[in-house]
Amino acid sequence: MTTAAEGARLQLPALMQRVALTQESLIRAALAVAAALVCTAVLIALSGKDPVIAYLALFSGAFGSIDRVAFALNKATPYLLAGIGIALCFRAKIINIGGEGQIAIGGLGATWAALALPVAHPTAAIALALAAAMAGGALWAGVATIIHLSRRVHEVLVTLLLNFIALLIIGEALHGSLGEVGAGFPQSPLLPATAWLPKLWPRTPLHIGFAIAVVAAVGAYVLLWRTTFGFAIRVAGASRPAALYAGLSVPSITITVMLLAGALAGLAGGVEVLGVHYRLIEGFSYGFGFNAVAIALLGALQPLALIPAALFLGFLEAGALAMQRQVGVPSSLVAVIEGLTMLFILAAMASAERKPQ
Amino acid sequence: MSQSEPFLEMRDIVKWFDDVRANAGISLDVGRGQIVGLLGENGSGKSTLMKILFGMIPPDGGGIIFKGRELCEHTPGDAIAAGIGMIHQHFMLVDAMTVAENVMLGWRAAGRWLRRGAVGHALRETSARYGLDLDPDAEVGRLPLGRRQRVEILKAILRGADLFVLDEPTSNLSPPEVSALLEVMRRLRTEGKSIIFISHKLHEVLEICDDIVVLRDGKAVGRMPAAAATKAELARLMVGRDVSEPFQRAERPPGPAMLALANIRLPAGEGSVGLHDINLSVASGEVLALAGVDGNGQAELAETIAGMRRPSGGRILIDGVDATRCGVAERVAAGLAYIPADRSQMSLVQAMTVAENLVLRDVRSPPYAHRGWLNRAAQISRAGGLIREFDIRAPGTGAAAQKLSGGNQQKIVVAREVGRAPRVLVALQATWGLDPVATRFVLDRVLELRAYGAAVLYISSELEEVLAIGDRIGVLFAGRLAGVLPRAEATAARIGLLMAGGAEPSPGMAA
User: Fold this and answer.
1) Of B329, B340, B377, which has the smallest distance from its Cβ to A247's Cβ?
2) B269 and B303 assigned to the same domain
3) Does residue B166 sit in the same domain as residue B275?
4) B508 in any annotated domain
5) What is the dihedral of CA A344, A346, A348, A352, to 10 degrees?
6) Inter-axis angle of helices B376-389 and B406-418, nearest 10
7) Is residue A20 in a domain?
8) Which residues of B touch A244 (CB under 8 A)?
9) Interface ipTM
10) Rounded average pLDDT over B257-269
11) In this structure, what CATH number is given to the domain that contains residue A292?
């Protein structure tokens, strides 16, 4: 069937073909990880710890038990959700780095809905809280879009600066009306149990957020390759003059894709609050937005490739935290390990892309 | 111009790109003080051969001897040091800098300090010697294209080039600029410099070259002195068959007006001359061809008609219906097709597939989409049909557009716009960068459309083409429509004068 074969090729754009799972690209990824581990081993040794023991702790911390795997999957969930929206924005050449703030406002929305609108039915309560989370994230992305389109301020600047405001708003809420009286720490009261996300795997920490994120990734894939809106995103991202010529409105694409990304980031924040902490805590999503950008790039803006990218980061982070607890490697070094690994992999991907010339 | 002692000797150059053989053992000799024309269709191997000469890509076989020394595994830097100057089709200049600063850029001999005075002096001297007429203190961005090209030539001269490679240097120039360039080339030859001249325009090659080499399918299929060559013979060598049969151009009475512009105005600014009270009308079965040097409002006019720019005044009627307020998609639906000049950014999405590009402007309407869902089977069957009908050479419907040669890329654009059977076609520089065969293909499709009763507005800076294809011929100058002449009255001399801004007391002002 030539048509089926050509159909399969049609959905494989140049970018995906370049990062497809060939033997060469797998070797490249393995080398990048190995190089990062070697570099970090030197740093661990310099901090006076044994790198071999540290890495064993890292590995067992990531994969050592079902609970630990569940913990890593929970870690990966908000990165994946927010990363999908960022990948869609980047596809359209809209550099949205406001995930950090959109996630935080999403968490605030979920908390407010769960506390202020008591619903007895658990499914309804969860749906309501997640909807509020998505609305919050979309609202925050919408504010950025309005400023960007109406005042012609670059989207990087607007989304970045709104991150700081969002975090301050969370702090303000937790020190004020939404804070738990007498907690001694800026956090909200415990949410009613009806709004807690159910477990995906009973008696482990794994909540249904991960499943929601995978469904979102598949949905984004379908959107990008099977719908006219996805076509418009890809044309606008490839060339603005071509979009104009094709009769597409770049402002309306910008608005739609930004609201979508904001909603997904908000959902990430809501899932974190309702599935992990069961309350809003100051700094609960610290760094999530930037990790989401990292996995969007790591997955080469391919929604489905974002799943392994998010898993990689989730397991790495879970393992690194275990390493910190068990071996006493300083926490700053954990951030260094994560950063170095990402850097090496992105460098390997970039060199693979440049090679065909 | 003796051939006895070759200045440049390229021997049996072979180059493979994956499983495509771009150069199949090409030999090329250039003597000192000789101008050699290099002809060939798009994809015949000219660019590959020149990139190998300049050290941009390594050959898979063969050797290069330049001035008695072998050039092997060389870089562009080595090529420049050896005395090879490459003038690319797209200029490598910094617009915001002056001529002198551009010349100093990356030039070791200019020293570590910016000695504008000394460099300016050297520059004036060389400029006068070669008749380049360049002011060292002029900002490059403000110079016309012909002058910018001379900055590139000046850069190469000052870097000690003895051999100049000019890659399609005339495709962006107006007729007077072309004559000036040919004059500069003659001066270079008098000074003992050698030139490899790549062009699709046979009359230029015949006028300026000493020898002409024709490439086809990666092989040199002929070399002859220009004095002994004819256009027909060269064209036949390039394609391997006879292509010189005249246009099939039936005279036909024009029908009702399909496209009408009334007092269209567009403000000037941002490097644009704007449009000033453009009035024109094109009838069914008629080609209105507009000549003019680039930058006189051609793109502005075409994009305003296509709905990509909002005029500040005036009206546009498509088939009698006011379309002034319609967007791009509505105009496509109303039967307006548009072939823009820029394939790299506008008319094609280079990274997307051939099939996607073939439905770029139709993808949101049935049968290619239904309620927002793409129908890929419909896309692919449409693409397959157009690929056959328009003879597009592509590895498949799923190949990225950027993998295709310039001629085949333009075939995609023509197939999409003409294949929709439009009632009005606007074409802007539709044959830019195309070889004679591909040019002919585009012109034939346009005339076919005319025979079906479409109205065609054909905008080009190629005077020859405009005269060949237009039923009526006008000129755009400084954003104004300068006189529209019936075909019988439009001579190259009259139109050429209008293109240069000369006044023409014309009875046909209201087109």
Assistant:
1) B329
2) yes
3) no
4) no
5) 180
6) 110
7) no
8) 308, 328, 346
9) 0.84
10) 93
11) 1.10.3470.10
